C-alpha cells in the first residue's frame, strides 16, 4: 500500500524485530523478524493479503497434521487446567478474511476443552439499543472472569473492517475506534488479561476456491452470505482497511500475529503452537481419582418402561435395513457388535 500507511506498516515491522515484548504476565513474547535482505511476509507487505505471484500452496501431510494436532490439543488441555488453577484470564481474537479458516481453527482449539472454561463469542449484528451504547460496551460483558478463556470469532475489530468498508459506521465513528482501541486494549492487558490477536491471511485465489466449494456443498452453504460474496469485489478495500487497522492497533502490549492460511492444516497447527508458546502455563497436578465401590441394592425397583416415553430406536431400524440390503446383494450378514461409535 503506497503512501504514509505503507511506510508506517514497514516502520512497525522494523520495531517488531526487537528481542521481545513483555505482556501482563511478564512473559517475553518473541516477535518475528525478517532476515537481512529478505522481504517481509506477504500479509505484512503493503499489498495486503496477496501472496507472491505464482507461489504454490504446500499442503501439510495429513498424517503429520493429525499427530501434531492431537499433541497440541493435549497441551491445550494442560493450559486449561493451569487457567483454572491460577484463575488466569485469556482472550484470543480471531480476525481475517472471509473463508480464511478462523472458524475451523476455533473448532480445533476447543475440541477437547471444557465449555465452562473455554467459550466462543460470536456476536450478531448490534441491536438498536446497542447502537446507541459505547462501541466496546457489548463486548465487555463477554470478557472472561478468573479461570476462563474467551475466543472471539470476530470481535470489536468489525468496526475497522466490515463496518468501515461497507459503510455501516460513520467516518467519525471509525476514526474514534482507531483512537480508542489501543487505549481499550492497554487497559485489558494492564488489568492482567492475556490478550492474543490473530489475523488469518488467505490469498484471493484460495478464498474464491473456498467460496465455490461452499456454493456446491449443502452442508456448508449456510456459511455464505451476500456480504461474503461482495468481499470478492471489495478485496482491495479490505486490504487497505486491514493495513490501516494494523498501523493503529499493532501495539507492543497487544501485537497482531499473522497466520498464513492458504493451507488450513498448517494454519491451525501454527496458530495453536504459537498461542501455547506465549503463555507461561505449567502442567497442573490433579488429585488422583478412584471409582468408589458400588453399594449393594437397597430395594429400589425401576418403574415399568411403559410409563416413560422413549425416543424411537432409529439405530435398530437402520441396522435391520442394512442386514436386509446385505442379504439381497448376497453378501455376509452385517452383524454389528456392541461397543464404539
Describe the structure.
- With 341 residues, the chain is α/β, with parallel strands linked by helices.
- The chain has twelve helices and seven strands.
- The protein has helices at residues 4-15, 62-86, 102-110, 128-131, 137-140, 162-166, 171-190, 204-215, 226-233, 235-249, 264-277, 314-329; strands at residues 21-22, 28-29, 89-96, 118-121, 148-153, 194-201, 256-260.
- The strands form two sheets. A five-stranded parallel sheet has the order 4-5-3-6-7, with helices on both faces.
- A hairpin with a 5-residue loop joins strand 1 and strand 2 (28-29).
- Helix 2 packs parallel to helix 11 (264-277) and helix 3 packs across helix 11.
Summarize the structure.
With 341 residues, this protein is of the alpha/beta class. Helix content is 42%, strand content 10%. The protein has a domain at 20-28 and 41-46 and 59-277: P-loop containing nucleotide triphosphate hydrolases (Rossmann fold, 3-Layer(aba) Sandwich), CATH 3.40.50.
* Radius of gyration (Å): 25 Å
**Helical region count?**
12
* Subunit organisation of the chains: single chain
pLDDT under 50 segments (min length 5)? 1-48, 50-55
Topology:
Layout: H1 4-15, E1 21-22, E2 28-29, H2 62-86, E3 89-96, H3 102-110, E4 118-121, H4 128-131, H5 137-140, E5 148-153, H6 162-166, H7 171-190, E6 194-201, H8 204-215, H9 226-233, H10 235-249, E7 256-260, H11 264-277, H12 314-329
Parallel strand pairs: 3-5, 3-6, 4-5, 6-7
Antiparallel strand pairs: 1-2
